[in-house]
Amino acid sequence: MKRQAAALAAVAGIVMLAVWFGKYWPPSHWTVVPRVQLIEKGRQAAAHFGLDVGGWKAYAVATVAKQGTAPLSLRITYVAHDGEQAAEAGFDSSGALIYWRAPDDQKGPKFESNEAAARAAFQYMAGAEAARYQSPRRSAGDEEHEDEYEFRRMAQPGSSLRERITVKTKDAAVERVQRRTSASLSDEDDDDDEGYWGFFAVLSGVMQTAGFVVVLGVFILWVARKSISRRFQLRLAGGAFLIMMAALLFGSGWDKLHSVHLGHDTVGVPQFFTALTILLYVAVGRGISAKARPKWMSLEQLCLLAPVSKAMGESIAAGMLFSPLLVSIPFLIAGCGLFPGSSVWPQKAALLYGRSPLWESGEMKVFLGLLWFFGFVVPGLERLIRFVWLRWLILLPLGTVFCAHVWRGVSGPIDGALTAGLVTLALFWFVWAWFDMLAVLTLQLAGGFVTGLLILGQKHESIWSFVLALIALAGAAFWCYRRGQEVAEGDPLATNPMLTGFRAEREKLLAEFSVARRAQQDMLPRAMPEIPGYSIAASCTPSLEVGGDLYDFLKLQDGRVGIGVADVSGKGVPAALYMTLTKGLLSSVTRNSSELGPVVEEVNRHLHGVTRKKVFVTMALGFLDAKKRVLECVRAGHNPMVWRQKDKGLTTLVTPGGLGLGITASKVFGAQLKVEELALSEGDAVVFYSDGITEAMNRSLEQFGEQRLMEAVERTDNLAAPAAHDSILGEVRSFLDGVHPQDDMTLVVLRVGG
Amino acid sequence: MANPFSIHKSTEQGLSILALEGYLDAHTAPEFEKAVESEFQAGHIKLVVECSRLSYISSAGLGVFMSFIEEIREAGGDIKICALAPKVFQVFDILGFSALFDIVPDLPAAVQRYQEAPVKET
User: Fold this and answer.
1) B5-116 architecture in CATH?
2) A336 FRET partner, CA 20 to 30 A, in A350, A477, A502, A526?
3) Residues of chain B neighbouring A691 (CB-CB closer than 8 A)
4) pLDDT reported for residue A451
């Protein structure tokens, strides 16, 4: 069902892109100009301004800072070979030069005067339109030989738009050139009007920063308070330092981070911090919630470098398959005709101008937003607000604004943008609800790749990197799916991925358990007692590494033989400890007494004294007088014994009254406890067992039950105890048909006769 | 495989009714324990555990009954168990719970039992 839906979504997305992309791309306010052309254009301009940057290295950076109404700007930085001089050229979205800055220490005059330099620069910038500008206003610069010229004009007669070209000159050379358009006639520089986006931008910025601070705080608290393994602490401490740096950068805003120059290049920096942040979210999530979070499991496993699982493969594949649909949403909104004025916003413009288009394809802000939304907002509201409708009342607008703002697919009137946000939210939510967090992040990543393919598919040499990236993602999904482990619930991998990160520690723990298991198995009688005229066989199979079941044979003072089976409530280590205690009590009490009733009462008294209230032990105990062929039995809350009387052809359950041990020390125990005597004859069998046998459950949730057990015993009439034991256990196993037993299984068979 | 388990609380004639549904095993016992604990803390010491929709109980589940019964009886209250399915009753019975707890056929019987014997005589 899920798979079909994903495949359907992929087809729908691709079809929609095929139909709409050509019609609505490129959007009206954005002209596609390849990076190479811009670099060349900048060189020509430099030559006009008196600088030869012919052999200089060029780096292109897209500034996607002021989104919404403001145009996109693109900056090419030219760096001289010695690395000491740098010039910059800026372009607007249509590829027109709007900014030029010469190197700081430009040497020697290139023009006759400052004014000549300014006029040359102006001429280049304004071109044929130069005549429509007013003669420049000159103002003296801060230093000597520094002048600033401003050329102005009205953009259109009668409009209030005003264009200005300012040229800053120094020592007869062009220092800085800028072309600006402003909305009013006033002399002050107008800030770009962000309109309604301004509020959302601030809200989203505050939320992101607040979210990050909270996450960081919880993280530090967690590291400080949790006694986690030292190796992991070191791992995290290293990460925490880097993450603090990231936090500082967060504080100054993502847009600035985009323009942080490390070696004149921003490639990989935001990605690096994003990766760290994902790790942080995973670690904190794991830290504050002790329960396994199924939606985060695949991502956690990925972050902790745990073995790949099939679920990871499914998530990656799902993310990929839904990605064309995600990319097609803006086209759908802009193209459906319901939202006049809406157009597709070129949010991945950096693809064309950035140095490495592949790196630019991921909108890091969105990744972090998604982590924040699904990692904290959603679970936070789930915890705080009980009413589902109220939760959605908050989530829906919040998520819509979030998606509209960070997934800026549609520009224009707010109704179109918000509708796009709502649809985007729905898609993300759908993938989240049906798959998991890894699928959500993959959806975003693959969406970036698909957009890259679309834009660069027009004409660009880097297109292959996107094809390869998508193939790599598909390969990863396939590999995870084919080679991955099936992670079952209850598997340590599923319940505690932390452990899987530290396989060595887990192995150590398992090794200790196997020592405990051996010790416990050693506690069971090594050999069956030899009783002339009888055969005995017994086994105990713990369901977990260690168990709470027990069987024992006792040599009594009066010459009789005791046969006991006991079961401690609960499972695992606590049960195993009480099992050991019970065995000790039984052997020490029988040293002083051979009377069945008092022995059991004594064991009960001791157990009641030491066990915690919730723990109890059930026991079936028989004292066999081999010569007289009499078996005295008690049943302290335990499953009844099966008595097969061969000569009479009778099979009965022996059910004398009796309470479980350790429940109460009052006289009720003694009053309830009944001893039953079985007069055995040749060929009879008495079977002691634990509830693991009768409650063994197969795939269709049927229990083996007493009836099947009695029938199984009947079928062994002619077998000695060892063969009968194996036959009965064999029937239980074939009934289970490969299902792992849920409980410890203990079986003791006593057969009268050789 | 996580088995479903849920508890529905209600009150009737001053008695706190806890209706159990599903599988009460080692995984779900803590939930039941918490429910009984919070009733006890709130001073509701006359409990009826209604089991008509309880399909399975393990030893860990039985342990919960035991862990509170002494405290509750000392405080003058009790836990009455009603409407056990035959299979579940068998588990209670094997362990001897019939001697320790009032186990009655249905809810009205439990209410009446409280009028006759507020605390089971043992």
Assistant:
1) 2-Layer Sandwich (3.30)
2) A350
3) 59
4) 81
